[in-house]
Amino acid sequence: xxxxxxxxxxxxxxxxxxxxxxxxxxxxxxxxxxxxxxxxxxxxxxxxxxxxxxxxxxxxxxxxxxxxxxxxxxxxxxxxxxxxxxxxxxxxxxxxxxxxx
Amino acid sequence: xxxxxxxxxxxxxxxxxxxxxxxxxxxxxxxxxxxxxxxxxxxxxxxxxxxxxxxxxxxxxxxxxxxxxxxxxxxxxxxxxxxxxxxxxxxxxxxxxxxxxxxxxxxxxxxxxxxxxxxxxxxxxxxxxxxxxxxxxxxxxxxxxxxxxxxxxxxxxxxxxxxxxxxxxxxxxxxxxxxxxxxxxxxxxx
Lengths: 101, 190
Hints:
Number of domains of chain B: 2
Helix content of chain B: over 70%
Oligomer: heterodimer
Distance between the termini of chain B: 65 Å
CATH class of chain A: Mainly Alpha
Number of strands of chain B: 0
Number of helices of chain B: 7
């Protein structure tokens, strides 16, 4: 059985949906970061698959940039989380509702 | 044949690992499952012929990102069980609708765009790493430099945010000193 582009795209969708479920149901911000990493990885799989099946390197280039963005997002996010944890002693999302509209 | 076997095996493993990551109540289990899932994702890159991307995936994610997360876990004391929010029917419904729409779009998109053509085609007779270097340093040089500046900004931001009071070691002070520092912090922050 031949593995086509659609197989990879369906897999990418499933992984993205799992990441979305994680973003929706996680309360702890560290766990929320895990879910965002899953989202970025799912997109990377789609990029690499399209790059392979169309014989074009643009997809791989964008996957590299996505990896770079994921790394810097993590560095800044973890720094902010450390500051928050030092001030409030918790990293639950519910404690961050100080800006009620 | 072997490609199909490898694809289904790694697809199953990746989905299982990421499912554990988003559902488990133990932060340590989530971290371990996420690291395993990242390595299994790199297997897809190797199957797809993107060798350099697979190597970068292993180095960056399981090398750097996982080390940072492990540091964060030790810092935040996430050994206790993670509380979940559940029971919101609207969110579940919205999520299901979004996932369904995504699946439909992904099935339809290859049919719509059948006239896609390669913009930067792969070079014949050169390995993946060489072609990646050729394209990255000719067509994508400016984005590459911008990404470098972005990483520098992220590094400086991480040092500034996390490095405050890192010169004080809580393990080398006695309890009285730590209490004094905490009281000072409360005065400043309140």
